[in-house]
From TrEMBL:
<dbReference type="InterPro" id="IPR016161">
    <property type="entry name" value="Ald_DH/histidinol_DH"/>
</dbReference>
<keyword id="KW-0560">Oxidoreductase</keyword>
<dbReference type="InterPro" id="IPR029510">
    <property type="entry name" value="Ald_DH_CS_GLU"/>
</dbReference>
<dbReference type="Pfam" id="PF00171">
    <property type="entry name" value="Aldedh"/>
</dbReference>
<comment type="similarity">
    <text>Belongs to the aldehyde dehydrogenase family.</text>
</comment>
<dbReference type="InterPro" id="IPR016162">
    <property type="entry name" value="Ald_DH_N"/>
</dbReference>
<dbReference type="InterPro" id="IPR016163">
    <property type="entry name" value="Ald_DH_C"/>
</dbReference>
<feature type="domain" description="Aldehyde dehydrogenase">
    <location>
        <begin position="16"/>
        <end position="472"/>
    </location>
</feature>
<dbReference type="InterPro" id="IPR015590">
    <property type="entry name" value="Aldehyde_DH_dom"/>
</dbReference>
<dbReference type="InterPro" id="IPR016160">
    <property type="entry name" value="Ald_DH_CS_CYS"/>
</dbReference>
<feature type="active site">
    <location>
        <position position="246"/>
    </location>
</feature>
<protein>
    <submittedName>
        <fullName>Aldehyde dehydrogenase family protein</fullName>
    </submittedName>
</protein>
Amino acid sequence: MTVHQNLIAGEWTGANGVENINPSDTNEVVGLYAQASVDDTKAAIAAAKAAFPAWSRSGIWERHVILKKAGDEIMARKDELGALLAREEGKTLPEAIGETIRASQIFEFFAGEALRLAGEVVPSVRPNIGVEITREGLGVIGIITPWNFPIAIPAWKIAPALCYGNTVVFKPAELVPACSWAIVDILHRAGLPKGVLNLVMGKGSVVGQTILDSPDVAGITFTGSTGTGKRVAAASVEHNRKFQLEMGGKNPMVVLDDADLTVAVEAAANSGFFSTGQRCTASSRLIVTEGIHDKFVAALTEKLKTLVVDNALKAGTHIGPVVDERQLKTDIDYIEIGKTEGAKLAFGGEVISRDTPGFYLQPTLFTEATNQMRISREEIFGPVVSVIRVKDYDEALATANDTPFGLSSGIATTSLKHATHFKRNSEAGMVMVNLPTAGVDFHVPFGGRKGSSYGPREQGKYAAEFYTTVKTAYTLA
Ligand code: NDP
């Protein structure tokens, strides 16, 4: 098997390939991927630093063409790249193709943004002086990504970084190097100058830590766990650099007595269990008012019986495997914790086998949970959801907001009054009405509050807040 190498200073390099294993079929090796060392990572940072002056002054048409070409190629190869994604991460083929399309759309969006770069010219408070306000790229951006969106998250960080004139050192999660390698290959062939985009695959403790420790990295954009996010923050403060963190969630979905039952069940099943519950925007707390509680639990349980857990590539699969053995153990541990805490296991909870050996877990639903239980407070990141019964809307809102996290939230209701109040008073960065808590557009801001996020929002026009620094220039006329 050929080894997929790292890209450093425009050269593919690295020999020792580590196996990327398919979680739907652990006998299958998706590919071999090189591991960067500390020295490789330092070389990548040096290359990005050397490439920055020219790239930051490159024409916007050049940036547009490269980003557009990348978006077009990703779209043209959506089925192949989607299958690669499904094989390395385990989300179902339709979900994986959907994520690939989204990556393409993100490149198209920032190809457009490159042509819309602009500043402001304003009069000075003093006579005969003009003031120009412009945005400039930061320098070398360290991009560190998690395993759960192997193509969309790299796309929504790399595309704006390049659009605004930054150079990049990119470290994908060790579990999912294949999609990252593919998009770096596409961008490289699209004509990026040497050193503008560098790929360093390998361990967080080696490659990631070297990026954190480098004084030459001007900004770090990170998505992943709260623990690693705190390390990024501490190291960035040390180096006086800009940083942006997207971390975990414990997203609530409120279901009110007046909800359309079908809408509520569809939204809850999607939020909690699709993509195997491995979305930072997944809803793992269903907060249900008592008038609809029993009907809702019965209907959701019926729905769960119809969901097929199987190989991600198989037609008809609704839920693919858990990403790896370690995450499966975490999920199982939380199921045990839920039982011990006194929640009632209403559905699922069992590891299951299929034709191909993989990490298959039934969608798992707890009822009679309280918001104080660990299963309601800590992020599980698996297909494990608990239902919390509440008296009325006021208690539902208070319970929804009673969490250290604040990424997304949802409400199922037919009441305009409650929907409006919830949108205004939910302490989350993204609020959904009669929709799943997961599933967001690519052209509008993404991000959360409280323990979920730090720094400017990602995606859409708001991405410029992180990837640029503002300059105010004064000229005597
Ligand atoms: P991790 O924090 O373990 O890993 C995220 C990235 O950080 C990986 O690339 C990892 O490398 C790297 N890393 C690990 N240690 C270090 C280090 N010391 N220095 C620098 N980088 C390091 O998270 P997971 O990949 O396990 O992702 C799951 C978590 O991410 C969940 O908690 C989830 O909620 C959160 N998440 C949040 C999202 C959001 O937008 N809010 C979106 C997606 C996920 P490696 O894996 O190779 O060791």
